[in-house]
Design brief:
It contains two helices and no strands. By secondary structure, the protein is mainly alpha-helical. Helix content is 78%, strand content 0%.
Length: 96
């Protein structure tokens, strides 16, 4: 189950808990970094969308922008589905 024992002995509850917390913190840091990145990208795309609404973009640029906006929406959908699955596991009292 999990990693091998430290130094050839069985892990104590404290050691298991410490490893679990380290893993959780690393995952949380990655998720948070992804959210910050996606917020910046969203802000940039919305600014471009405003320019497109005012007619400042060519038709090719508008099509490319529409594709990027659609990709962003799909990323949000995937993230929402993953979070929903995690919420269901938490609600059921199960780990991974």
């Amino acid at each position: 189950m999990g990693r091998p024992p430290i130094g050839g002995r069985a892990m104590t509850a404290t050691e298991r808990q410490r490893r679990h917390r380290q893993r959780f913190r690393a995952e949380f840091a990655q998720e948070r970094a992804g959210l910050v990145r996606s917020h910046r990208q969203e802000t940039e795309l919305l600014r471009e969308a405003e320019r497109a609404e005012h007619g400042d973009l060519s038709s090719e640029q508008r099509i490319a922008l529409a594709d990027r906006l659609a990709d962003m929406v799909m990323d949000y959908l995937r993230r929402a589905q993953a979070l929903s699955k995690r919420a269901m596991r938490v609600r059921a009292g199960r780990g991974r």
